[in-house]
Amino acid sequence: MNKSLRQLSTLLVGVLAVGTIITACSSKTDKGSSPAPGSASPAASSEPSKVPDKKVPLSLFMYGEKVDGLNYNDNPIVNKVKELANVDLKVEAVSSADYAAKFGLLMASGNLPDLVNSNVTAYAQAVEAAQAGAFIDLKAYYDKSPIIQKYVTPEMMEMAKDPATGKYWRIPMAWDKAPKGSGIAVRYDLVEKYNNGVWPESVEQWVDLLRVIKKANPTKSVFANRNIGIMLFYAGGTPIFDMYGANPYGYRIVQGKLIPNVLLPEYRAAVKVMRQMYDEGILDKDFATTTSEQYLQKMDNDPILLNTFETSGITWNANYGATKLKDGRKFLFMHEMKKPPAELADMKYTYGFGGSKITSDGISIASSSKDPDRAWKVIEAFTSDELVNDIFWGEEGKTYSVKNGKKVPNIEALAKEWTRYSHYFAFVPGYLGAPDLDRAKTEISLGEQYAKELYASIDKHVEKVTANGEGSLDGWDTLGGMPGYVPTEAESLKKPESRQSIDKFTVKAIMGELSMEQLDQEVAKWEKEYRSVLYDNMQKFVDENKEKLRKLGYKQVDW
């Protein structure tokens, strides 16, 4: 459970920018058009219509990590779908590490399965394949399906529409029930122990507290970074940048103009603080090379004070600490600084954003499928009330019980045998589509008082990020943090190179290998080489779609 959830957490905040050219799919305009749904068109209910008489063979390509003892072709979830849709379903599940490469090979082969679960790691390839006609338009099916509409609203479906072709090539994964945003998470038990429970009020006071903790724990890490490859600064490495509202990889909109964060005075000020922390030994000397595995070990064993988590991540870490480590650690979202940095233009830039109501994951039907109606039945079966309950809650009497009309999870049973794999099949409702279950598990694990404090900090944080609307702190969202925007091929190819350049001069400045003046020169070089290719097309999209973006909750358009 621990391992698979950590893999999932990493997956949900990451995306590999890939630009594989799809050569096997025709670009004829009628190839990806939507057939008129046949007898498999759903009735007006939240359960699939009558089971078809004739069993047909279908295939599904999906994301799914390896789980000991799991056969993706033979398990309670898939077997129930086979029964409801009357299909002989062959499933190929591929891990996140291999997904992009296998997806590219699959598209190039021209031999597509009936159903394709597109994954965040291959979003650019999926868009390219869709625009080349690899998948049918699903709008006609969607319009007649209350099963799918229960999770994906018309507004969310519009967000998933391809802006280049106008086609609805996937049913997007819903993300509206997931806790909104991300923010700086604090080990409040360390604040209690080393600062008498008093929240620091400024960046300087946070650094002072880190000094105290380091002095008391000279051989331990107190501020560590997590290098995930495609982003060198991640998780524990970003809180200082986030206090200045200037994640190195993100951008800001000021009076309608997109400004990369590395050009901001806030970024420069944050680098100076990180440089000071590195000189004093507060920031780990190996911060630039700490792998995810090494970082997670430090998280388990060392008094690391600050992290940047998605809201779902803070509850996961709180649960993990309470049930696995049992060392009294207590995670809460950071209180707003009463004395913000002088360089910070507005506190709103430190709050983060609510995030999109959909993710870049989704499920599609191949244009080459001989039975798209039955393939749609499979999508509906996975999304039926019965299966959604099974995916998240499992089996009554085994993984949960009902007391006074309320479901009560059996946490141990869920962890051991069900939710190790079932969430991978939440193609439409989303991996975090059961907030009632998540909260119930958290309240049981943490106890009443800690759970109350945690959710109070979450509610306060969510209120702020919701006020900021949709977006992305680090520009890392596959959709660019901007509803309806799809990066160009040139952007997809240049973005990793740009990040590597940012990583290089930021690390050198923190380690003292560059003076601050030399850092300014390197930033100027970066702007000359990358700003136009990464931001000109996005700027044009903003200029041409302001009203649409407003309606979709992208409030930055008016900042």
UniProtKB/TrEMBL annotation:
Region described as Disordered: spans on this chain: 27-52
Biased composition (Low complexity): 32-49
Gene3D superfamilies the UniProt entry points to: Periplasmic binding protein-like II
InterPro entries hit by this protein: Bact_solute-bd_prot1 (IPR050490), SBP (IPR006059)
Protein name as catalogued: ABC transporter substrate-binding protein
Species name: Paenibacillus contaminans
Organism classification: Bacteria, Bacillati, Bacillota, Bacilli, Bacillales
